[in-house]
């Protein structure tokens, strides 16, 4: 079995690659270990807490004990299903800030500045959020991007409280101006999760030149310095899927570096520890691991208007039935319908704090606050200085990778999280929330000092599930870069990586959108074509040097 291009991973980037390469007439085989995305637990947006906690859909990875979080092991879900993590995520759609991509370009990812990536964001989108007069949004791409109804008054209170606290209101944080409070966007279409599988893979598989192969990728087969295929295991048998042109890893920021190392590409000493022959000594493989952490700042509600009234068997059944028969109602939204991006202090050029607002006090694992009616803001810094690593636990392809984010290892992370808590308390204290705020559930008003807040952070901070950076893109002469700006693995021919692992630095917000963009742009690099750079000018706060808002 062979094709022109063999893609490992049917996730956010892999699906986009399969679509664009097959669209161009190339034969494509996509290798995916996971199964079908059929069924309401994935397709119903409001059921988002279920698939990421199910071994059927999730690789089930956990971090090693995190030394700066009291030895806690945090969940690190990654999608093991067609669509990858876009089939189990929260469906929040964020492009990232223009400054993120300009930083990429300045750090060695030439051709990945904002002017270069914006045309790919536009190509991939079908935006349904309003007037596109300034031309920042796409209107005819495969990925539908929508907004929720925001008919709960708490959404209005959140945005108005931001305005009362002195922050701007933005009409579109994915457009010219990210900074401010406003509507949050989601990858939901006609009441269904619009994953990369729905947007890209399923249309691609209807073409005669694109097929899906089920199996566990064991290693890339390399002969005379060139990738010629991928060894997989399926049905208890090992076979090689041949690539006439190239192999492309799009297996996630955890599994792509693992596969490189199993294939003999990575830090030489580490590979030797596991008895793996070194084909390319690339010390950067698995390094530069980054993520977003967040806290839930929860308030008890004076009024019984939150989603807690549906947090029972009857309520969930009612929502589920309406969604099953009509794809409407509360089941048709992820409920993250309001958002904000703000700067933490003067001298920060563009937002470094993100908010998701939710009209219920609940965790990602579906556990609601014991106090009943409440609401919460998910808040966290965007550009942590902490770095971790992915490494091998053994040379067995079935073994999970060793994952250590080294969360909160940088002193400024603690300062940033304390700032997040205090700024959030200020927002909830505005007049717009006065009819709704009963009291603070967590952290709780008794926790005020730096030491108090640090203890709360250490115990309660959670991953936002945005791992990236482990196959960093950079100049070919950079000893710590893994891929060059064409996504080619440095030191091996006919092998590329195209997923969130190539990000030099994490972007503002959720990573599904940037991951899909990476697949779109990488496909053009492979095909030897390029969309013309954009000349749109993004907005930066004119007084950022001296003003926080």
Structure description:
The chain has 549 residues and is an alpha/beta fold. It folds into two domains: 1-148 and 184-227 and 236-285 and 471-536, FAD/NAD(P)-binding domain; 149-183 and 293-381 and 409-460, Cholesterol Oxidase, domain 2 (2-Layer Sandwich), CATH 3.30.410. It contains twelve helices and 23 strands. Strands 1, 2, 9, 10, 11, 12 and 23 form a seven-stranded mixed beta sheet that branches. Strands 5, 15, 16, 17, 18, 21 and 22 form a seven-stranded antiparallel beta sheet that branches. Strand 10 and strand 11 form a beta hairpin. Helix 1 (12-23) packs parallel to helix 12 (512-527). The longest helix has 18 residues, at 411-428. The radius of gyration is 22 Å and the shape is globular.
Outline:
This protein has 549 residues and is of the alpha/beta class. 24% of the residues lie in helices and 21% in strands.
Q: The CATH topology of the largest domain is what?
A: FAD/NAD(P)-binding domain
Question: Taking all residues together, what is the mean pLDDT?
Answer: 97
How many independent structural domains?
Answer: 2
Please give the alpha-carbon distance between the first and last residues. Answer: 58 Å
CATH-level-4 superfamily name of the largest domain:
FAD/NAD(P)-binding domain
Biggest sheet: strands, sense, closure? 7 strands, mixed
Write the topology of this structure:
Layout: E1 2-8, H1 12-23, E2 28-32, H2 40-43, H3 98-106, H4 114-124, E3 125-127, E4 143-147, H5 153-164, E5 180-183, E6 185-186, E7 188-189, E8 192-193, H6 196-205, E9 210-214, E10 216-223, E11 226-234, E12 237-249, H7 255-262, E13 265-266, H8 268-273, E14 280-281, E15 293-301, H9 313-326, E16 338-342, E17 353-358, E18 374-381, E19 389-391, E20 402-404, H10 411-428, E21 437-442, H11 450-460, E22 462-463, E23 495-497, H12 512-527
Parallel strand pairs: 1-2, 1-12, 2-9, 3-4, 12-23, 13-14
Antiparallel strand pairs: 4-6, 5-16, 7-8, 10-11, 11-12, 15-18, 15-21, 15-22, 16-17, 17-18, 19-20
